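Morning F.,

Quick status update on the modeling queue. The single chain you submitted on Monday has been processed. Sequence for confirmation:
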Amino acid sequence: MEKHKHYVYALISMPGLMILAILAMNMQLEKNDLDGGGKAFLASAWQDETHGVTYAPPLSSTRLFKTLRLNARLPGINTVIFGSSTAMGVRADMFPPPMKAYNFAQTGNPLLSVIGEAEYIQAHDGEIRNFVIPLDWSLDFLYMQGRPNPADLSPPRLEKGPSGPPFFARMKDALSLPRIKNLVVVLGGILKSKEKWASAESMFFEPSSRDYRCADGSIARDYDTMYRGTCTGFRFDGSATFANLERVSDEELPSLVLAATIPSSKYSEALSHSKGMPNPAILDALSKIVENARGRVIFFLPPLIPGMERRFLALPGYSEDLKRTKAALDAWGKRENVAIIDAGQSEKYGCSAGEFVDQHHALYSCYEKIFAKFWKEGADRKGIYVPR
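Structure tokens below.
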């Protein structure tokens, strides 16, 4: 009977011990990832030296790394691409000489913040002549109420001392499904390694992976334990690889378009609450950026998954709201003598489902087609530009 008791106690305690082990390992991985912001400085210095692909964790908060990279790149550029993750597919090689660009787009960065960033650069960095700014209607950025947010893009300093989320928030994150899945991948990689202890030490205690090569031949280094070895991160020109995300398939396309255009979607709500009228304070602030620019200011409506915007234009109510947005921007663009690339109907540029990771994040190849058509057909056009 006594033996059975011990067996039962051991059986009962097993799940708890497993949870504790998962918690301890993921807390250590997270501690190694965050490192008080220090990894952003390490990753930036490595990219400056190698021109390779990297990023500093977490991928959901890119401002520190991108600000370090912008300041490092300032001596060699004259063009800045702004925006949120919807603009991260834009690459420097899409702009003709003498434009030399860096993509400063950051995760979750609204237009009100973009304006503050552009204003800061105009006030402090006279060599930046050209500005490329997205006007996202689908994410509500164009309609968002309020005034532009002032920005400070001076070179960041490494802050020593405690940082990161509170302890209990870290515990919750450590037991989240993405973290547990990542731990399984990490442990699997360690078990497959010929040098298991060295592999474990690298993952749990060292600041980065070793250098490796991406499929296109570019060098990469991971400063995160998430997405190891996948070439996830930012190129030297600031554009994102989106290598951690699956591409949309043709089979998925109809359901994604339908999900995007139902009344409860964030895209539908952006149109319905604003009635398609851009925030006048945003347009006024953008007019000042145009006025103060020493070179070109190019605006673009980011590409949406094929068929999505066309469906909105066929739906009563939403159609009128979206047309109102385009008409307001067209009139404003002609008045300010600037070009606005309307890439909402990405299929007009030849973009396919496989060039997206969801309804509003387009990859490099789609943006390449968009800017190629723009330079060929519409670079001198004022107001809204759509391809012939």
